Amino acid sequence: MSLLPNRLITDSTPQQDGFYMPAEFEPIQKIWMVWPYRADNWRQQAAPAQKAYADVALAINRFCEVGVLVNPDNYQSCRDSLPADIDVISVPSNDAWARDTVPTFLINDKGELRACDWTFNAWGGDYDGLYSPWDDDDKLAERLCDHLDIKRYRTDDFVMEGGAFHVDGESTVLTTRMCLLSPGRNPHLTEAQIEDKLKAYLNVQKVLWIDDGIDPDETTGHVDDIACFARPGEVVCLYTDDPEHPFYDATQKAYEQLSNMTDAKGRRLTVHKLCCTQQPVTLPDDY
User: Fold this and answer.
1) Local mean pLDDT, 10-residue blocks, the chain (287 residues)
2) Hey, what long-range contacts does 37-45 have (CB within 8 A, 24 or more apart)?
3) Where in 54-100 does DSSP place strands (E)?
4) Domain containing 210: what range?
5) How many domains, the chain?
């Protein structure tokens, strides 16, 4: 993998250069995945997880291109598990959460491509991160941008993950205070300063804050677990009206907050309920 140091942009931001993140509901050219391998995180030496990832890659590949990043020691087994039209790239990683560690891809009005390379600390660093070390995951975006020959913006003073925010493609971003204001992320920044970072690196005009997510012990409340844009002006929100449900308080509050928000275009949000239940889960015999 060739190193291209001139790909790093240090004297401007995406906002200054006219680059922004498209909405996730827009057409997608390519999906990136990271191959699981950790025996301490995945059962049976990650074999069932690898089979599941291969199945997902094959399903996605019916509709768009797929690229898989794989730890060098697992390259050949991964390559053998996937058809030739799925790219397999050897690059070190610490775990397999591509949404949070690969670059956030940006475009401008001419269709040119750049990326955000967020600082990653395994969802909390030394304070409450999920694993250590995380250095290869933090370098994953840089290495992929180098491989693709894409210019990137690095946020050395701002910790962020892809699942911590959701954009509508029309200058609005959605996030949670539970995550971005947590002590393990950016304790040196105020809410207003974090808003400035989001505006500068995603090129948005308005930040919508939900107080809480539903997973305080893992991602510290990623917004992608509780709400997302379905189209401009419309949001899907996890919801339950069962007071005994473990997500009751968080989903009730999120629904109320979203229902009273307007986006960057001044539109009052239409909020759709995605209802969850407490039905028991039956695991396979070999789980």
Assistant:
1) 67 98 95 96 95 98 98 97 98 97 98 97 97 97 96 96 98 98 97 98 98 95 97 97 95 98 98 86 63
2) 37/70, 37/71, 37/73, 37/74, 37/96, 38/94, 38/95, 38/96, 41/95, 41/131, 43/287
3) 65-70, 87-90
4) 12-35+93-275
5) 1
